[in-house]
Amino acid sequence: MHYIVIALGGALGAMSRAYLSAQFTKLLGTGFPFATLAINFLGSFLMGLCAVIILDYLKMTGYWRELVMVGFLGALTTFSTFSMEGLNLLHGGQIAAAFIYFVVSVFGCVFACFVGWYLAKLLV
Fold first, then answer.
1. Contact 35/20 with Cβ under 8 angstroms?
2. DSSP conformational letter for 57
3. Could you say which DSSP state residue 23 is in?
4. Contact between residue 8 and residue 67 where contact means Cβ atoms under 8 Å apart
5. Rounded CA separation 10/52 (Å)
């Protein structure tokens, strides 16, 4: 049953990612992978928030954790797209942009997760 719950969350996360990616791309353009960066920031922030609210405060483990954190947020965020877009920047000769993308993505996502966690700790 837990694989079904993960699959359901994953389907919802993947659809959300596709929609948000299209919206961010319309808004910000395609010259730099802003859409992936924004979605990964959002997903990391939500992961920190959910870690506190779902696991610590509500004590909801098992299916809820699998649905939201493993399925939905796992499919919403993506390391493989981040990797490919960074590689595309490198192959396109945009070395500085690739370096900035790598650094901002990694440190920004960890920071976004911390901010979500910290805000949730303040709220609950």
1. yes
2. I
3. H
4. yes
5. 21
